[in-house]
Amino acid sequence: MKQNEFEKLLDQIAENLTSQAQKDTFATSKVFEDRVREMLTEFMIIDLTPHPHAFPDIVLGDFGIEVKFTTNDTWRSVANSVFESTRSKSVEHIYVVFGKMGGTPEVKWGRYDDCVMHVRTSHVPRFEVEIGADTSLFQKMGLSYEVFRNLSEEDKMLHIRLYARRRLKKGERLWWLEDKEDSQHSLPLQAKLYTSLEQEEKRRLRAESVLLCPQVLKSSRSKNKYDDAVLYMLTYRGVLCHQARDLFSAGSVALRANSERGGVYLLRALQDIEHEIFIAASTLEDRLFEEYWGKKVQKEHRIAEWLKMADGHASGWKPSEYLFINFNK
């Protein structure tokens, strides 16, 4: 069957399903998908008991149909993972058949690559589809769906993160950074309070945060200087810190190694976790530095680069004169 012939078939199926839905709406997505399959059997042989997680839902040789259903009055729906790890290798052309039961019940179809218009984030990024979308996601990213789907998982995420960053508002950060579906990093199901952590974990998190977010060294009068550090803990480590100042400026952290008062509390707090910062520089994932520093930096150069940024943020003192003195800059 040629592509134009298959699309004429979809016209007929959508028209028939719309007529049925307006007489008696489909109650569930399973009932709707089963009916789509039944109608297709009138024209070709299909599998009526497919794998539940296969993509697309219905495979017809070179053609595939992803079935979407909603009881709301909308043509938008969350779709499959951007990685498409369960995609059928035989399918060349994918279509969306969408049953909208809200408002006036209707069924429409569209080409999958035209319908994908956004990325929704869950544990991994997922496409969002819309029948009649003005602009597809792939047009926004500047490449075709055919090119995108054949990229490696890492290269797909380069495009997805770039798209997502363009949409961020001031003070927002991406909370998903994984390059693969089976990434070893994962957030805990339950968020933890920073105040409830053991001292060793607190030190590690403070070190990671100040390394990735050297703007915490700004003057105490600077607004929002802790925002990125707090967002990192929450979005990457699942830890909520509701008193950001306590991370570096409070006496409980600044005077931990030496109880004598005086001096720059922030400096004293950093000197106390200098070893942890050094470890973080060599162990944190590369993409975190790309996200927070805006560039790739080799592990052996990260401390030197951090000191340059820290000197630029600090007011009235130079971190490079006090921190990592024995480090080969």
What is the topology?
Elements: H1 3-23, H2 29-40, E1 58-60, E2 63-70, E3 76-81, E4 93-100, E5 106-111, H3 112-115, E6 116-121, E7 125-130, H4 137-141, H5 145-149, H6 153-167, E8 192-193, H7 199-212, H8 227-237, E9 239-240, H9 251-254, H10 265-272, H11 274-283, H12 286-293, H13 302-313
Parallel strand pairs: 2-4, 8-9
Antiparallel strand pairs: 1-2, 3-7, 4-5, 6-7
Summarize the structure.
This protein is an alpha/beta fold and 329 residues long. Helices cover 39% and strands 14% of the residues. It has 13 helices and 9 strands.
Q: Provide the spatial order of strands within the biggest beta sheet.
A: 1-2-4-5
> Would you count the extended β strands for me?
9
Shape label: elongated
Calculate Rg over CA atoms.
Answer: 26 Å
Could you give the order of the helices and strands? HHEEEEEHEEHHHEHHEHHHHH
Number of helices: 13
Give an overview of the whole structure.
This protein is α/β, with parallel strands linked by helices and 329 residues long. The protein is 39% helix and 14% strand. It contains 13 helices and nine strands. The chain has helices at 3-23, 29-40, 112-115, 137-141, 145-149, 153-167, 199-212, 227-237, 251-254, 265-272, 274-283, 286-293, 302-313, and strands at 58-60, 63-70, 76-81, 93-100, 106-111, 116-121, 125-130, 192-193, 239-240. The protein has a four-stranded mixed β-sheet. The protein has a three-stranded antiparallel β-sheet with strand order 3-7-6. It has a two-stranded parallel ribbon with strand order 8-9. It is elongated, with a radius of gyration of 26 Å. The chain starts with a helix and ends in a 16-residue tail after the last helix.
